[in-house]
Design a protein that fits this description.
- By secondary structure, the chain is α/β, with parallel strands linked by helices.
- Helices cover 27% and strands 18% of the residues.
- The strands form two sheets. It has a six-stranded parallel β-sheet, with helices on one face.
- Helix 1 packs across helix 2.
- The protein is globular.
- The structure holds 6-phosphogluconic acid.
- 6-phosphogluconic acid binds next to loops.
Length: 258
């Protein structure tokens, strides 16, 4: 009898869109993806390196991951947590992405604190970006490649802290950015994001529907939005979106994922 064919590697399925009924369904899908990617990474490399995103959308997913059903499926001591971006504020500031992730998930699972690599938003931004880049280069032996990068998308098409018109360019892995209010941020660059094995973009809400149509719709055109530049070179991008955000997409893309 011939052996079972091996499943195709992720690189053969570069784009996947999962449309979820509502925010709760979206959180479940995202938590399931986290568990599955953790399992794959631990099986292959005994370590799971994930970059967490900020914003509102991943909150519920983080909370779900602390529940027994998910938490018991993850070998937390083998998880290395990083961040996709950070505001230039201290870690106890309500705007801190680290604080949100710490409160909703990181402090509630069996994750050793030394496995959490946060961006130091309280430091001089240039020095903090340099320091984080050095950390990544050391941790990934000179070539950062996350198992999973979580991202969100703003209605203006920004992702992480890469804003329209201000994409950090060049060879940097981590950069300083300025948001539309003029505030400084720290962010993984597109180079880092696109080097990941899996990138998951979580998008919820009707206010994102027009932008999503411009990015994923049948007649989408390249208009230079940062989110359009998220294209892993040897990996997969998975959009996990709710029906409200998907409401302007053409039906074929908007099939419900079970
Ligand atoms: C942040 C992220 C940002 C976020 C999007 C979507 O806020 O820290 O930099 O890219 O993911 O703005 O945010 P929501 O999930 O709140 O819509």
């Amino acid at each position: 009898m011939s052996p079972m064919p091996a499943p195709p590697p992720f690189s053969q399925d570069p784009l996947r869109i999962e449309v979820c009924k509502d925010a709760e369904d979206l959180a479940r899908h995202a938590a399931g993806l986290f568990v599955s990617r953790a399992g794959l990474a631990l099986g292959a490399r005994r370590q799971f390196a994930v970059a967490l995103s900020g914003g509102e959308t991943p909150r519920r997913m983080y909370a779900l991951l602390t529940q027994d059903h998910y938490a018991y499926q993850i070998v937390w001591p083998a998880v290395q947590v990083y961040f996709s971006d950070e505001r230039c504020v201290p870690p106890d500031d309500p705007r801190s992405n680290y604080r949100m992730a710490w409160e909703t998930m990181l402090s509630r699972v069996g994750l050793p604190e030394q496995n959490i690599q946060r961006m130091r938003g309280e430091d001089d931004p240039v020095l903090a970006a340099d320091a984080y880049e050095r950390e990544l280069l050391e941790a990934f032996a000179g070539a950062p490649r996350f198992d999973l990068v979580l991202l969100g998308m703003g209605a203006d098409g920004h992702t992480a802290s890469i804003f329209p018109g201000g994409q950090p360019a060049g060879e940097r892995w981590v950069a300083v950015a300025t948001d539309p209010t003029g505030a400084r941020r720290l962010t993984l660059t597109l180079k880092t994001i696109n080097a990941a094995r899996t990138v998951a973009v979580l998008v919820a809400g009707r206010e994102k529907a027009d932008t999503l149509k411009r990015v994923l719709g049948a007649d989408a055109r390249e208009v230079g939005l940062p989110i359009q530049a998220v294209r892993p070179t040897d990996g997969q991008v998975i959009w996990i979106i709710d029906e409200a955000a998907a409401s302007q997409l053409d039906p074929p893309a908007a099939s419900h994922a079970d």
